[in-house]
Amino acid sequence: MNFQKNFLWGSASAAYQIEGAANIDGKGPSIWDIYSNIPGNTFKNTTGEVAIDFYHKYEEDISLMKEMGLKAYRFSVSWPRILPKGKGEINPKGIEFYHKVIDKLIENNIEPILTIYHWDLPQALQDEYGGWESRKIIEDFTNYCKILYKEYGNKVKYWVSLNEQNIFTSLGYLLKLHPPKKSNMQTFINVNHIANLANAKAIEEFRKHVPNGLIGPSFAYGPTYAKSAHPKDVLAMENAQEINNFLWLDVYARGEYSPLTINLLKSIGITINFQDGDKELLKKGIPDFMGVNYYSTATYRHITRKVANEINNQKGNTVQSDVKELLTDKLFVPAKNEFVRLTDWNWVIDPDGLRIALRRITSRYNLPILITENGLGAYDTLEDGKVHDDYRIEYLKEHITAIKDSINDGCNVLGYCTWSFQDLFSWLNGYSKRYGFVFVDRDEESQKELKRYKKDSFYWYKKIINSNGEDL
Ligand code: BGP
């Protein structure tokens, strides 16, 4: 079997990582504007204040997409650009900007995939009631969604509700790596439950306003492996699967938490804060597809089975968590997998893991899947206007092959969005960790002229799209 005829060969981005124009045309501050401006929070104190200036350069970037033959472009809308205070007054310039982007994409036969929330919460809501820590956010988020549905619902078919809820909740409330930089397991689970409710409500409203559209969350899926066939390691792996994966996937796809997840949490003293009506609401949030952001797999062992030489051979610089002990360590412990390679930032490279991810979702939920992110972060060198990124080509080729195999296995994959089209701002790794097909000439020290250069991978992906994945 091959890729379906209308397979969405795409690429992805997020507002804060590309737009820049942080204080322009009525945009309000987001939690990331504030957070990245506090020294020590990001790599070399980099911010997305200018980013790659997509706000002013979107036409140039979209012409490059057209030249490549890109079929889909995933971007996010900045909530505080639409609603500077998170609620209340709408910013017409913000509304207009995304109309222009969407129209330009459509004009060039590129399917827009709109992410509603990619982490840039309006700071005003953080200040007023603690953002995701309060149930008040459900109403504000729903109102924001409704504005987008009414504005763009007749132009945009594919929608992503929350990007990587598992990452923004765990990094924000457990690992102290994202705003608001807290570390408390119970708060994390509370915040996550509120985000589940907001997600479900957004999907419930979507059905009313965009009846012909398709919507799903984007989940950062790291399938779990056992360190060995020792039954205790397998149980640890299954525990990790409950806490790291099913805690989200089951709620999205089935509208309920797995009983095992609930009990495991209980065993470490954590409860899910249910209120009247929550269970019913979660059932209304079943998506049309599961969005998957895939970068790596994770291996686990039982706490009593000590294994020497655990993960660490990192070259790439990043901001690290100072949280040393997690409650979940009692249930599973991360272990090194000697069968996989690592990127310079210590991320596992495992194309088979993508096939495993797609198969596990299909087997457990039987939902269509949209791969909303996948790519290689690497140091690139610009020489005579060229970037020879054969390592990126190899990475993408292996992952596309894995998708093809999973389609043959019986998975229904709607599309593949690489991360990313252009080089962009990495939340914790500045500008030198590059993912794009298009090199953007800026670094941590200087934004230079933000000139765009096509990398070797640009021409390669163009060929893949043109042959619908045949010419791998
Ligand atoms: C995902 C995010 C993206 C992007 C990507 C790469 O978690 O959804 O926004 O940043 O990871 O991550 P990084 O920039 O840390 O390498």
UniProtKB/TrEMBL annotation:
Annotated Pfam families: Glyco_hydro_1
PROSITE patterns, A to Z: GLYCOSYL_HYDROL_F1_1, GLYCOSYL_HYDROL_F1_2
GO CC entries: cytosol
Cited InterPro entries: GH (IPR017853), GH_1_N_CS (IPR033132), Glyco_hydro_1 (IPR001360), Glyco_hydro_1_AS (IPR018120)
Cross-referenced SUPFAM superfamilies: (Trans)glycosidases (SSF51445)
GO terms classed as biological process: carbohydrate catabolic process
GO MF terms held by the record: beta-glucosidase activity
Similarity annotation: Belongs to the glycosyl hydrolase 1 family.
Protein name: Aryl-phospho-beta-glucosidase
Organism from which the protein derives: Hypnocyclicus thermotrophus
